[in-house]
Design a protein that fits this description.
Length: about 180
């Protein structure tokens, strides 16, 4: 994996399936996704990033995730809206412009070969159950997808000094404020 250096992170881009979920989808008889499971600690970690002024967005192939993102007040880009995948790296210039960030200020978390294009351009992390080819392009965290991965990402970036400094009580107040605006 190529090591990219950055000081403070300003934007987190998250794939959803395999990062916030374990990658499993439950279908009805017509082949429509009915549900997925998410880890509450990861939602808290997302709020923690946002409480520090770090934007968080989803870049996902599954349109199912749009309503979940909307309920959580998270911007969402679907790169397979018409049924065909587009390389996630093609979204980087627009994302940088929209969020007024440089590629060096972005962290991406992905788990599948569809994520490698973007992983080559920004600092990237992957879960422990990602394929070997993905691990060649991202820092592996000791958590499989859907099992506290985003929480582990927050802790890892905090330990590395890549997040703004924070004091617990004021940080928690900002987290509570964000929490009160979400729909569960």
């Amino acid at each position: 994996m190529e090591s990219r250096s950055y000081s403070l992170v300003k934007l987190i881009i998250l794939d959803v399936d395999g990062i916030l979920t374990d990658g499993k989808k439950y279908y009805d008889r017509e082949g429509t996704v009915q549900y997925k499971t998410f880890c509450d600690k990861d939602w808290t970690a997302i709020k923690r990033f946002r409480a520090l002024g770090i934007a968080v967005i989803f870049l996902t192939g599954d349109p199912f995730n749009e309503s979940i993102a909307r309920n959580r007040k998270i911007d969402c880009i679907v790169n397979r809206a018409n049924g065909a995948h587009s390389d996630k790296s093609t979204y980087l210039p627009g994302i940088c412009k929209q969020y007024n960030v440089a590629a060096e200020e972005i962290v991406f978390a992905g788990d599948d070969i569809f994520d490698v294009g973007l992983m080559r351009l920004v600092a990237s992390y992957c879960p422990s159950d990602a394929p070997d080819i993905v691990k060649q392009h991202a820092r592996e965290l000791p958590s499989p997808g859907g099992e506290n991965f985003v929480m582990k990402l927050f802790d890892s970036l905090d330990r590395a000094g890549s997040l703004p400094t924070w004091e617990f009580d004021s940080h928690m107040q900002a987290v509570y404020d964000l929490d009160s605006r979400e729909k569960f």
